[in-house]
Specification:
mainly beta, six-stranded mixed beta barrel, 25 strands, 49% strand
C-alpha cells in the first residue's frame, strides 16, 4: 500500500492557525441550474493557473460574454457556479431572480444572473445561471461548479501550478494510485474510503481550503481512537459570509483505495453541506485542497469513474513524505 503522511509541521501550523481564527470553506450548492448545453470536445486543454492563498487553490482564466479573462476557481464540491458581485455589476449581467444557496453554514437566499457564454479556452457553456456573491468571500472573480464542468476530466497539477481540462489517460507508474468512484449523487462523485479500518464516504472538493468531516465521522473516530488527542475550536467562513463553529483534530489514518494518508487535519461538526447531499447519518469526509496539494497531481476522470493521485517525488516534495 502506498502511503503519504501529512507532516507534523503542517498539523501544528493548522492547529495554531485554528486558535481564534476563521478559515474559508466554500463548499456550496444551489437549487437552480443553467440551461442544457451541447457536449464539450474531448481533447485536453492546458490553462495557466496561479495559487490562491496558503492552501494553494488553483484558478483558471475564464471569459464571460467575450469579456475578460478573469481568474475563477473550479469547485468539484459545488453543483452550480458563482460570480462575484463586482464583476456581475461591471458586466451589467441580467438578473434571474433569487435562489437558495446551500453552504457549510446553512441556506441563504442569493441573487442570480444569466450568463450567455462562460468560456475556458475553447470550452464554452451557454445560458449558465450563476449566483452572485460578495467578492471578499469568494476571493476570486468567480467559481465554476459541476454545472460548467460536466463530465470533463480535471487535472490539478500542483507541481507546475497548472489546471488541465479534458480527457485523461490512465496512469500506471509507480507513483500513481487510482481510486474508483463508487457512487454518483446529484452530480457529486463519491469514493469509498476508510478511517482506521472503518468505512466512510469521501468526495474531493477543489474549492475548499479545509478538509471537513461530519458528526457521524467524528463519533466513529472517537470510538475507535482514530483521532488525535489535540483538539482546537475553529470558525469556518462560508461564501455568503456565514460562519460555522467546528472542532479541528487530526485523523491518524485515512485510506482511499490502496492509498493511505496519515495525520490528516479535519474540521468536524454538523456541516450543512453533508445534510444537503444526504450524508448526515453515514460517516463522510470532504477532502479539501489542504490535503490535495500534498500530491504532485490529482486527476478526476469523470468519464471512467476514477480519481488518480500522483505522489510527490523526492525532487518535488514540499512537506509530505512517502514510503
Amino acid at each position: 500500500m502506498d502511503s503519504l503522511a501529512i507532516s507534523r509541521r503542517r498539523i501544528a501550523a493548522t492547529l495554531a492557525l485554528a486558535l481564534g481564527s476563521v478559515l474559508s470553506a466554500p463548499a456550496f450548492a444551489i437549487d437552480a441550474f443553467g440551461a442544457d448545453t451541447p457536449g464539450l470536445p474531448d481533447e485536453q486543454l492546458t490553462e495557466p493557473t496561479r495559487p490562491l492563498g496558503a492552501a494553494r487553490r488553483l484558478t483558471v482564466q475564464v471569459r464571460i460574454n467575450d469579456s475578460g479573462p478573469y481568474p475563477f476557481l473550479i469547485d468539484t464540491g459545488a453543483n452550480s457556479s458563482v460570480i462575484s458581485k463586482d464583476l456581475a455589476t461591471s458586466l451589467d449581467l441580467p438578473s434571474r431572480g433569487q435562489a437558495n444557496l446551500h453552504s457549510i453554514a446553512g441556506v441563504e437566499l442569493v441573487d442570480t444572473v444569466v450568463v450567455n457564454d462562460v468560456s475556458v479556452g475553447r470550452r464554452t457553456r451557454r445560458g449558465l445561471i450563476m449566483s452572485v456573491l460578495p467578492s471578499r468571500y469568494i476571493q476570486a472573480a468567480g467559481i465554476l461548479g459541476l454545472d460548467w464542468l460536466g463530465s470533463q476530466g480535471l487535472i490539478l497539477d500542483f507541481a507546475r501550478n497548472q489546471m488541465r481540462l479534458g480527457s485523461i489517460s490512465p496512469m500506471s507508474n509507480a507513483l500513481s494510485v487510482t481510486v474508483p468512484v463508487k457512487t454518483r449523487r446529484s452530480g457529486l462523485h463519491l469514493i469509498d474510503a476508510s478511517v482506521s479500518g472503518a468505512r466512510v464516504l469521501a468526495f474531493l472538493d477543489t474549492g475548499s481550503t479545509t478538509t471537513v468531516g461530519n458528526t457521524a465521522l467524528m463519533h466513529q473516530a472517537m470510538r475507535r481512537r482514530a483521532v488525535s488527542r489535540d483538539w482546537a475550536d475553529i470558525t469556518l467562513l462560508s461564501l455568503t459570509g456565514q460562519t460555522f463553529q467546528g472542532r479541528l483534530a487530526a485523523l491518524k489514518s485515512v485510506e482511499l483505495g490502496n492509498l493511505k494518508l496519515g495525520n490528516v487535519p479535519v474540521v468536524f461538526g454538523p456541516v450543512h453541506t453533508f445534510e444537503y447531499w444526504g450524508l448526515v447519518d453515514q460517516p463522510a469526509i470532504l477532502i479539501g485542497t489542504d490535503v490535495l496539494n500534498s500530491f504532485e497531481t490529482v486527476a478526476l476522470d469523470f468519464t471512467r469513474g476514477q480519481v488518480h493521485f500522483k505522489l510527490l517525488s523526492s525532487s518535488t516534495s514540499r512537506d509530505a513524505t512517502t514510503s
